[in-house]
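Record format v2
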Amino acid sequence: MKPRKPNSRDKILAAAADVAREAGPGNLSLDAVANRAGISKGGLLYNFPSKAKLMQALVEQHLRDFDNALEEVHSADGRKNLLSAYIRLSVEECQETEASASWIFSAIAEDPEFLTPLKTFKRKLFERLKAKTPDLKALLVTYLAIEGLRSMTLFEFHTLEDEERQLLIDSLLSLAGADSNIAR
Amino acid sequence: MKPRKPNSRDKILAAAADVAREAGPGNLSLDAVANRAGISKGGLLYNFPSKAKLMQALVEQHLRDFDNALEEVHSADGRKNLLSAYIRLSVEECQETEASASWIFSAIAEDPEFLTPLKTFKRKLFERLKAKTPDLKALLVTYLAIEGLRSMTLFEFHTLEDEERQLLIDSLLSLAGADSNIAR
DNA sequence: TTGACAATACCGTCCAGACGGTACAGTAGA
DNA sequence: TCTACTGTACCGTCTGGACGGTATTGTCAA
């Protein structure tokens, strides 16, 4: 659709995420982002005419990326089990230290409305999962547990040990009916 | 210990939570809190010599309240099943619209370090649960699911319908304590 | 009993700094 | 020439917090 922007926008978005992670979500200022991206503040405001637009773009890019990644993982194992693909992708995402989407906190502080696209995205994804998962109870429990894992990563609660974490993931995958093997 | 402070402090704390909820976590300013509490900014800074102290107190009070409530619920049913008490309390907490601890976002924006007490509290509570719950897998899954529920409440993702929510809760409680059934 | 002092609990004002955003002149590459 | 910036200067607003003042209550010696 759009003719592949010259990566200035992407550089800025990445810089914003970096600043939020490293300087804290409360210190995501335009100056800081511009510095981090290696461009001037004027240049930043040329690409994103307001801070609000920047935040919006951050959310949208995140959603696009996640959606693409999900499609990829799902296709890679023959479009058999969407829930298990969702779980595996989410777990993977939670392990990348570089991810740490703490820019979300900046967005909320700026204006909670920025999360609206995220909400509808989540709701739609859940509907999709519901349509494709026979066991509603298992879906509910695993979906919420993944949401919990995401939350704990975001807040950097290090409540679980590595083994506990692994045991959890195994349990979730088996609840999701991975490998055509349905437990209990 | 302390001779029951004249509830100015409590009033301020409550006001802070209100402001965060109503004006958004990014607009939790000392002026706003003072206005809301019906005292002057000077008075506020007398009770909490800095914004940081206010945030800290907010976190500490939350932890104290949760701990007391847990103790109460746990005692009320004969100290039989800590996990199930934890689940019931958390679910209840998530239903109170008045709760909506969005002041947490303000605290994070201010300085992520404010969550340190919360982290250690959670870790300790989890250890306690682990010691008292025979089925580790069930504990992991239910604990994480509750964490997910909390997260969804906090972010106001309304992904689940009421029935789905109820089904989830029933599943979690049955996973937690196979013995007694739930009346609700 | 009273007067002196002090601690408590606040009020109201002021200020320096940070931040978002504007304006605009200049410039290097396609 | 147009696009995509850079760089600088600047403005208005908001915010934390320092500070000086004040009203009320308590304490205690004379």
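Residues 8-176 of chain B form a domain with the Tetracycline Repressor; domain 2 fold (CATH 1.10.357.10).
Chain B touches chain A through 44 residues (CB under 8 Å).
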